[in-house]
Amino acid sequence: MSSVPLPKINSAPQLLHPSVHEPMTSDWRPLKPVFDHGDFCQGKLLRIVSWNINFMAPGSARRAFAIMSHLEEIFGDSPPSLVVMLQEVNSQSLAAILTHAWVRNNFVLSNIEAPQRYFTLMTSRRVQAKTWFRVRLPSQMERDALVVDIPILPSENRLEQTSQILRLCTTHLESLPEVESQEWRPLQLVQISALLKAPPTPRAQIVAGLVRGDMNPISPLDTTSHEAENVKLHDIWEEKPRPPIPQLKPFQKGFTFGKARGNTWGYQSRAAKSRKRLDKLICTGFVDTFPLSKAQDLTRKIGRLGIGVKTKVEVLESELKELRFVKD
Prior knowledge:
- By secondary structure, this protein is of the alpha+beta class.
- Helix content is about 15%, strand content about 30%.
- It contains 4 helices and 18 strands.
- It has helices at about 60-75, 90-100, 100-105, 185-195; strands at about 15, 20, 25-30, 40, 45-50, 80-85, 105-110, 120-125, 130-135, 145-155, 165-170, 205-215, 235, 280-285, 295-300, 300-305, 315-320, 320-325.
- Strands 1, 4, 9, 10, 11, 12, 13 and 14 form an 8-stranded mixed beta sheet that branches.
- Helix 1 (about 60-75) runs parallel beside helix 2 (about 90-100).
- The model is unreliable at about 315-328 (pLDDT under 50).
């Protein structure tokens, strides 16, 4: 990986070999390497979707399959330039994803075997990605960053030896509340920022980078940790003025699912305090963002998908010492 822009970090990157489905053999095979300059050019639109599957909830396989079907309904049988970033994928949900025809026909997968803890990133075949790798983050929960480099096609009047790179990253920062002065999430953001701003090599230069995933902003420090001097990343949500928060009376119930706050998590739980904007899109460099036109609702520059989507899951429930199956 000597030609890959990398910062000085304690953890050595783990090079990945992404896989693509082969219809003739009905099997997944390693993707052949691409040339230095791909087919992605400046000004081209790249769609990015991030989804935390929640490995702890029941029916992870059925939910993962339903998520893929939902995205197929939104983006069509042959999606445009699209990156799907998934967090909290377990072996059961990965197996379901691997069997989905839409995924098989359109996507390259970073992993087809389940690590202990991992995040799967998929890219449409219309987006040629050059390098895939993981980097361990400072963590007590084995958290890491999954990185893919997309080469940018030079313009007609710019033929350079150095390949320009758009670096994408997905992650799931440390969970649960942390003791003050012993936080892991700020340290993890420092390393991710270094990855997105890594110095150039003679063959490649990062011109823009972004990280999308579950940032777990649980403590007050998490609200501004991306602005720290040793991070300096830009939160897309903050680009436009904050929309007004609906003022509800005690007996009133909101039906916007926290749209004004940009909430992405907590509506499958009865605990209202868990409803937060845990998922964020943070970037650096020469990149401009627009809300996804196919989203169910748009707030600022962020769109949300999957609101109200349900799947039937069989849950084994114990009640009055009797076992019975219920539909959730």
